[in-house]
Amino acid sequence: MNITLPLSQLVSGKTLQLSGSKSESNRALLLQAFFPELQIKNLSTADDTLLLQRALQSKEGTIDIHHAGTAMRFLTAYFATQVGREVLLTGSARMKERPIHLLVEALQRLGADICYGERNGFPPLYIKGVALSKKEVRIRGDVSSQFLSALLLIAPSLPNGLTLILEGELTSVPYLKMTVSFLQYCLGEEVVQWEGNVLKVASHINKPLKNNIWEVESDWSSASYWFSFVALSPIGTQLTLTHFKEDSLQGDSALPQLYKHFGVGTTFKGSTMHIEKTAFPYSTRLEFQLNNTPDIAQTIAVTALGLGLEAHLSGLHTLKIKETDRLQALQTEITKLGATVNITDESLYLAPCKQLREGVSIATYNDHRMAMAFAPLMLKTPIVIEDKEVVSKSYPEFWEQVEEVSGVRFQETDKR
């Protein structure tokens, strides 16, 4: 189904509770698979998390994780450690285009038995679980942080632990820090050491957890869409979001600092976050380096578009291997709306656009973030979002909550 979003405005003062962080939930589920005594509270309701949870519980020989990239990376590492287990790990057509060879090669150097089912370097993967006795591996630091996190999360279960040596520049550092902090909280700070480009995780087999309860914080990536809604609203518009931490482990908690540039102020009271449109943007040209926060790049680009701003976004090299080529998708869809966009392999330039076209149908490319990033434009011009159900990948309640804060019942149409 598609959804038509009419020109509207937010009902100021609403309070929303967002689902638990997908990033935190997925890390907690993988560690729980090795340490069943770990209790997880406020688990994400996202499709990706539910797919990972079912896969970890499954006894089937074929595991299909559809579009869930995190699940593919984490499960590759997990099944490699499950002695005697044989699985075919597969996914959607797009998943089979997303490279995974750097993670596979790192696991193979540790002794893993993994081979490719179709095309070298890409899923599906045949995995035979074996004991991984080697304890040191090198891997590039400028690849997906999920590769690095997958290795770190299996490390406590290995008989000799793991020394991970990162080569070159690191990307998405906050996500790596999230994994390290999470492991230190559950296992003890002394178990995980990070010095320079070397991460050491000691074996924790047959040892109790230091903390066996993890309460998942609400998802900052999901919060980005509400920052965008407020940024595109009149001055004085307010929203309150619950279950957030000012000192969050999530990289996208950079949102309050980034959205100051769009005139959005953020205040905290305990675990409650209050956001308000307090001013017009104080610059007509924005320049952001988003290497550490690539998941909110689409939201930021669309916010700048809605406000008629010029924007140069860089550090976006990982966007080309996400659910879709997000840079190309952004260029295509923003151009439909009447703006000029130029992209490179790692950047996006948006020229100022003072008049958006009406009634444009936004393709979502099986990418949840395309649907949600463009939704706030309803405050500037009527649009249609294609395949609205795609949001269930990370934020199933999204459209229901958009209706709640807009006071509008949206029209759904059949796919054509």
TrEMBL record:
It comes from the Bacteria. Pathway: Metabolic intermediate biosynthesis; chorismate biosynthesis; chorismate from D-erythrose 4-phosphate and phosphoenolpyruvate: step 6/7. SUPFAM superfamilies: EPT/RTPC-like. It is an enzyme of class 2 (transferase). Residues 60-401 form the Enolpyruvate transferase domain. GO terms for biological process: amino acid biosynthetic process; aromatic amino acid family biosynthetic process; chorismate biosynthetic process. The keyword Amino-acid biosynthesis applies. Coiled coil: none annotated. PROSITE patterns: EPSP_SYNTHASE_2. GO terms for molecular function: 3-phosphoshikimate 1-carboxyvinyltransferase activity. Its EC number is 2.5.1.19. It catalyses: 3-phosphoshikimate + phosphoenolpyruvate = 5-O-(1-carboxyvinyl)-3-phosphoshikimate + phosphate. It holds the Pfam family EPSP_synthase. Keywords: Amino-acid biosynthesis, Aromatic amino acid biosynthesis, Transferase. Belongs to the EPSP synthase family. This is 3-phosphoshikimate 1-carboxyvinyltransferase. It comes from Capnocytophaga endodontalis.
